[in-house]
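Researcher: We plan to redesign the surface later, but first we want a full-length starting point. Tokens attached.
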């Protein structure tokens, strides 16, 4: 998206500080240029941080059928499964709060510091879930504790967005920011899914059959400690965003001292922008959750895929997500954000419902694997460019706050889609129809929101 004179009607009403921050970016970013190695590290570790965030989310999705029996037993399979997805949604509900708190922290104190704290918190809260007693041991207190930890985890996960979704894109040249978006958000998502798939494959091999229901799911959650270690020993050594550092140098001492009260007031002036970003993220995130996120459950309940085969299929699907995300992000640099997003939305609208219908009818493992890979690849088309589209809507002084709040609210809404689908379907035989309807509606809404997105309102340049 190239900057221009026209855009949202709101553009003429943006606070003066926002204009100053844009000027500071242009005037001083060249003096804060990073080396190629530092740029690569910023992008790579932003993607890795986001990967570990989603790794912790995918862990729950991969063991959802087991957790349904461990924490939410009932006489109806889909009702128990809906309970697990409700716990998943609980995490997403808290993400906006975490995005607001850590977003302000990242805007005031730096992207790198926010990333370290959030990564440690995500890993510790995930690992604690593996130590919880079951319903058989302590009754209803078990799901209550599980939900409590999911809420705490959600705060820290919301904080990961505030740092991972700004540090990398602020560190790279403008002409490659779409590519960076694909690498960080979509590629990071694929890496997180791949890691979860490989861990699932390893754990199901170590704890086969009934042993997985007893101990294996706990080991899956314990693996979340990896993100805590990464936060402590890797993220703390990253270089700070050059745009954020340039803004700090441009601010006079008195303004810097008064800054903590400023982001709240300024972000309120961007309400129309935030609302549009929330719609885009709800649709793009919902499509991702109803493809990559829901596939493990679908293949278990509908296709009856064995755990070992499921692990390999999901690993290949994760590689497809990585490749698709990088490509879709890169294409927005070539043809523009809006045209690319419109094409992605139309492709999703047509193909995802048809592929779910085909997957439900597939019998051979090869067919099932093919549909899974294609669904994962197409399901990330609309999702991958969102990071940079959101980044470009806000000035540096509130970019972490604006992006984190928009992204996390959108993903809280989009992440509720698996719960709705599970409740609507009622039985596994109705999943393909429910998923076709839900993904079709989300894709249609995405196309409309992409059409409403301004093409020349870029505050990162």
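Model: Full-length starting sequence:
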């Amino acid at each position: 998206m190239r900057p221009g004179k026209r855009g949202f009607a709101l553009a003429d009403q943006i606070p003066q500080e926002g204009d100053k921050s844009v000027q500071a970016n242009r005037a001083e970013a060249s003096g804060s240029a990073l080396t190629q190695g530092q740029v690569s590290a910023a992008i790579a570790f932003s993607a890795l941080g986001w990967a570990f965030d989603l790794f912790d989310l995918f862990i729950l999705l991969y063991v959802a059928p087991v957790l349904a029996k461990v924490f939410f037993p009932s006489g109806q399979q889909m009702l128990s499964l809906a309970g697990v997805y409700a716990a998943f949604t609980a995490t997403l509900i808290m993400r906006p709060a975490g995005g607001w708190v850590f977003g302000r922290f990242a805007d005031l104190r730096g992207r790198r510091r926010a990333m370290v704290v959030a990564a440690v918190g995500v890993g510790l809260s995930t690992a604690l879930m593996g130590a919880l007693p079951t319903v058989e041991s302590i009754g209803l207190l078990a799901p209550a504790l599980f939900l409590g930890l999911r809420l705490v985890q959600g705060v820290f996960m919301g904080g990961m967005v505030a740092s991972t979704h700004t540090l990398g894109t602020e560190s790279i040249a403008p002409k490659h920011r779409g590519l960076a978006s694909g690498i960080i958000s979509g590629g990071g998502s694929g890496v997180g899914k791949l890691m979860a798939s490989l861990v699932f494959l390893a754990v199901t091999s170590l704890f086969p059959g009934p042993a997985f229901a007893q101990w294996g799911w706990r080991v899956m959650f314990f693996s979340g400690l990896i993100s805590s270690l990464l936060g402590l020993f890797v993220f703390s050594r990253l270089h700070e965003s050059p745009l954020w550092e340039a803004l700090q140098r441009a601010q006079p001492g008195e303004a810097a001292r008064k800054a903590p009260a400023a982001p709240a007031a300024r972000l309120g002036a961007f309400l129309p922008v935030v609302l549009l970003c929330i719609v885009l993220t709800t649709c793009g995130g919902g499509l991702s959750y109803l493809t990559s996120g829901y596939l493990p459950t679908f293949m278990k309940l509908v296709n009856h895929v064995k755990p070992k085969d499921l692990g390999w299929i999901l690993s290949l699907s994760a590689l497809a997500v990585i490749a698709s995300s990088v490509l879709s992000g890169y294409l927005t640099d070539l043809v523009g954000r809006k045209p690319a997003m419109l094409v992605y939305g139309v492709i999703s609208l047509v193909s995802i419902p048809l592929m779910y219908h085909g997957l439900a009818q597939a019998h051979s493992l090869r067919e099932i694997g093919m549909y899974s890979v294609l669904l994962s690849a197409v399901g990330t088309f609309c999702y991958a460019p969102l990071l940079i589209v959101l980044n470009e809507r806000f000035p540096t002084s509130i970019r972490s706050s604006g992006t984190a709040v928009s992204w996390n609210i959108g993903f809280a809404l989009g992440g509720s889609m698996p719960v709705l689908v599970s409740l609507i379907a009622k039985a596994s035989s109705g999943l393909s129809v429910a998923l076709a309807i839900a993904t079709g509606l989300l894709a249609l809404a995405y196309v409309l929101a992409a059409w409403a997105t301004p093409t020349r309102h870029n505050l990162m340049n």
